[in-house]
Amino acid sequence: MNPTAAGAALAINLAEDIADVDAPVHVSNPAPIQALQSDPENLPRILLVDDEPRLLSSLYELLRDRDYHLVTASCGSEALAHLSRVRFDLVLLDLRLPDMSGHQIMDFINDKGIEADVIVMSGEVGIDAAIGALKRGAYDYLRKPYSREELLKTVANALQQRRLESANLRIASQLENSEKLYRYLVDSSPDIIYTLNHEGRFTFVNDRAYQLLGFARDDLIGKHYSILVHEEDLERARYVFNERRVDERASRNVELRLKCHAGGSQDRTFNNTLMTISLNSIGMHVPDYEVKKLEFFGTYGVARDITDRKRAEEVISYQAYHDILTDLPNRMLFKDRLGLAVIQAKRKLTELAVMFIDLDRFKLVNDTLGHVKGDELLQQVAVRLKDCLRRGDTLARQGGDEFTIVLPELRDREDAKLIADKFLECLHKPFDLDGHEVHISASIGIAIYPGDGESIDELLRHADIAMYQVKALGKNGHSFYHNSMLDVSHQKIALEQSLRKALEQNELEMYYQPQMDVITGRIIGAEGLMRWNHPQRGLLTAGEFLPFAEDNGLMLPISDWMIGALCRDMLQWNALGSESIRLSLNLSPQYLDRGDFFEKMRGALVRYGISPAQIEVEITENICIRNPQYAIEQLNKLCQLGVSVAIDDFGTGYSSLSYLHRFPIHTIKIDQSFVKEIHDEHGHYPVILAIISIARGLGLHLIAEGVETDVQARYLKSNGCLTMQGYLYHRPIALSTFIALLREQDAADGAPGVRALHG
Fold it and tell me: Could you mention a single GO BP entry for this protein (predicted)?
């Protein structure tokens, strides 16, 4: 045996030994042993198949230094075994093998779907062998003997083509995935995305058009945009879509109303349901590099449905100028209309009348039947008064049980008198409040422009004075203002003297309305409410005298008295071991504005030994617009002391989410005007849900006030409001009754399910 043949034989034997131990791979000399151990996985794998050991060895030697992963086989069965176990990029295949032909191996490759290219190497001179190989998908056919360069070039070309095909497949897959992602993003957009050609016809529209407008994509492609635009907005649409703007001026925003599809008929009729769409359009241009100009290509646009936003804006605008309870113009809108009426009367040299109406006996209804029935009464009164007015007259609610009216273009005073008589007559009929027959009347004061005043405030003030004159004379009537009436300042002086005497003679008293934890049924807090034990008029609520006190500079001494009274009362309930009960007190804006307010509060807490953590100061939303920066400083001092701050009657004043961030707020109180609207525990009351969501989002404590029915309580509880106060649980009660409730609660501790008795 010559040395070459001996080396080949040695290599084959070594390879067989390795195959038994590691993997069944057959090689033709010792070199592949190292290759299989160290070659990285990304090297091209080539299977060399030839039954001539010398040819197989020389082929291996020719390719071994070319960064290929080489495996050899000397017969067909060995080749099939390798192909079944290992992936190969290229097979160099001899057609004439001892156990099968190369064609059979190629058939095996094709049948099994093996992705390997084949270069056939054969010594056969017949054309049939080459044709058979090429038919079976051979990359190339080399006739033996072949030159070294020919083989290397053919192998390199085959592998290069394979790499290119793999890269092309990868790019095609990426493009396909990118296209799918693009389609998904566009069709999943919450907005309508569209393109128009230069004629204004749709060339693309996403699926959102169908969801919002009812038009399928096929219904719009090729159609002019005008089939969607409301007739009144067509001119604006033409201006926007036909303008040929470029560069940074190519983007344009406009609001249009679009029609909705009415049904699936072939004619595609449209109903009158219109959707307001905010359109952002960008002109598309094709650059002409030769003539240095832009040719208009079409329009790309995004249409966003802002119907809900527009409706919300309308609601907000409406509510800003109307009373939520009665749907009448509020004080702001009334003054605006009165101002316009005064200007008109001045121009035409005519008279107008201003009426101030205060309901008699309304407090009795509120106190006996509750605020819900009182609100229903106000709504019914508003309806009756509106029915008595002429076209062009304005009825507004000033607040509480007070209404104002402007009657423009009077012929004479008799017109105002006739309408006032109609008011009294319509109110004389009984009101039905869920089976309760209620009788009320009204006191009406009338001021005439220009004789009784030429300004808005003067007319309102004189009408108010005339109304008080009716009250003083026994109520249930009307009176025109005249100069001989008792000046309003005298009335204020008399009431001021009574209030000052009330402070001196200890006629003021604090009542408490418990705040309940609806999960445990326990009292966890109480709101302090001031009462006046008037010698002649009986027990007066804070609303009956505190507004006057604010107008006459009495809020400061009254507030000083209130802080002391609250601290003294708290000592009594703390003595029962109820230090965890928090007290809420209403803070007047005037008192907050006073420079020594903070020191007064801190001094009282120290003097009586009350923990600041037991105190929560309630402020109204309006306090935040008087002197915001000063209010922030004062409230921050309170918070540093340990006192918490609550927003009372949230949502009824100058509502602004910004002050919830600027002011140190800990608690939001849902106003009873919102709570009373809850009539169905499974209903949807978006204002309530919005306030609850705001409190939860900002981490604020939440209290609902004015809870009077089980339905209201269940709805609030199911939506996350767990602290409540109102007639359903307790009315405002005197200190002695409140302490008795606390004793009951302490005695009931340990008895599950005990619910506080109604006060």
Answer: regulation of DNA-templated transcription
CA dist list (Å): 358 to 387, 398, 418, 442, 465: 18, 10, 18, 6, 12
Q: How confident is the model at residue 354 (pLDDT cuts 50, 70, 90)?
A: very high
Q: What is the pLDDT of residue 447?
A: 93
176 vs 168: CA distance, rounded Å: 12
CA distances from 316 to 312, 321, 542, 629, 687 (A): 6, 9, 30, 26, 12
How far is the CA of 346 from the CAs of 341, 353, 409, 411, in angstroms?
8, 13, 10, 14
Listed in sequence order, the DSSP H helices in 49-190 are 53-63, 76-85, 102-111, 127-135, 148-187
Residue-wise pLDDT tens digits, 179-202:
777 777 777 777 888 888 878 888
Q: Are 532 and 507 in contact (CB under 8 A)?
A: yes
Burial track 157-185 (b if 16+ CB lie within 10 A, e otherwise) = ebbeebeeeeeeeeeeeeeeeeeeeeeee
Query: What does the block give as tokens for 4?
Result: 């070459």
Other C-beta atoms within 10 Å of 424: how many?
Answer: 17
Dihedral sign computed on CA atoms, order 655, 658, 660, 662: negative
Report the interhelical angle of 488-504 vs 456-472 (nearest 10°).
60
Band of pLDDT at residue 287, cut at 50, 70 and 90: low
Location of structure tokens 């005197």: 734
Per-residue model confidence as pLDDT tens digits over 569-594: 999 888 888 778 899 998 887 777 77
pLDDT at position 514: 95
Give the Cα separation of 646 and 665 in Å (integer).
6
What long-range pairs does 187-192 form, CB within 8 A, spacing at least 24? Answer: 189/302, 190/304, 191/302, 191/303, 191/304, 191/305, 192/277, 192/302, 192/303, 192/304, 192/305
Encode pLDDT of 413-436 as tens digits. Answer: 888 999 999 999 999 889 988 888
Question: What pTM value is reported for the model?
Answer: 0.41
Kindly report the number of other CB atoms within 10 A of residue 89's CB atom.
Answer: 19
The pair of structure tokens assigned to 235 is: 């001119």
DSSP string, 254-274: EEEEEEEE--S-TT--EEEEE
Q: Which two tokens stand for residue 516?
A: 């309940």
Task: Tell me how far apart the alpha carbons of residues 547 and 150 are, in angstroms, rounded to a whole number.
Answer: 109
Burial 465-484 (b: 16+ CB within 10 A, else e): bbbbbbeeeebbbbbbbeee
Q: Please, which residues have CB within 8 angstroms of residue 599's CB and are 6 or more apart in sequence?
A: none
Taking only the tens place, the pLDDT of each residue in 40-87 is 567 899 999 998 898 889 889 889 888 899 999 999 999 999 999 999
pLDDT at residue 263 tops 60: no
Task: Please work out, in degrees rounded to the nearest 5, the angle formed at the alpha carbon of residue 228 by the alpha carbons of 227 and 234.
Answer: 80
The token duo for 455 is 């300004």
Q: Quick one: pLDDT at residue 33? A: 33
444 sits in the region (left: phi over 0; alpha: psi -120 to 50; else beta) called beta
**What are 266's two structure tokens?**
């072939």
Backbone phi and psi for residue 517, each to the nearest 5 degrees, phi listed first? -85, 110
pLDDT digits (tens, 9 = 90+) for 72-85: 999 999 999 999 99
Chain centroid offset of residue 293 CA: 46
